[in-house]
Amino acid sequence: MNPSHKVQVQDRVKRRILVVDDHPIVRQGLAMMVNREADLVVSGEAEDATGAMLVLASSRPDVLIVDISLNGPDGLDLLKNIRATHPTLPVLILSMHDESIYAERALRAGANGYIMKQEATEKVLVAVRRILNGEIYVSDRIANKMLKHYIAGSGATKNSFIADLSDRELEVFRLIGEGHGTRQIAEELHLSIKTVESYQAHIKEKLSLRSARELMQHAIQWNMNEKTG
Question: Cys-Cys link to 111, which of 46, 49, 106, 203 (CB 3.0-4.6 A)?
Fold first, then answer.
């Protein structure tokens, strides 16, 4: 076999990955790790949801690795948009956020797997190969927890005051905790200010908070707890 033809054949059998993360260092790290593998290659990168949809069309990936915390619409928003146009495309959600809060939300939104950034890097490759094989990937801890709740017939877990918030409300709550004002949140999520205010009102009601100040304090504290583990 001609050596160049052999290389072309090898390239064709590599599974293509699109990495979506707003941190360049994370994207570069994942690309370096993936591209060392004989059967995988990063075919595209994006830093936000808008860019991801554009790159998705041109890079024709076999699987996406998507961070939840993106600038603008978050990873769950992006996932829902992907599902509208690519219902069967495997998507692995990568996040620094507590899996007990986000894993079930991600799976309900159509993700094929959820892995925390704190996990060992080789587990990302395990997760990618597993979902490419048609399986679901979550940690053993979450798998056991979901199985227990399924057997008990209790549906989604209620292990946190956050559990009552919708996906969009949680997204707004997270952005408030990152110090974003109402107008900034509206611009980032492409919503009207009135709509964001409505979400804020719903969050206050669900969390029994009396004022915007209390909402901000709770959101900042929650965000700090998330980042410190």
Answer: 106
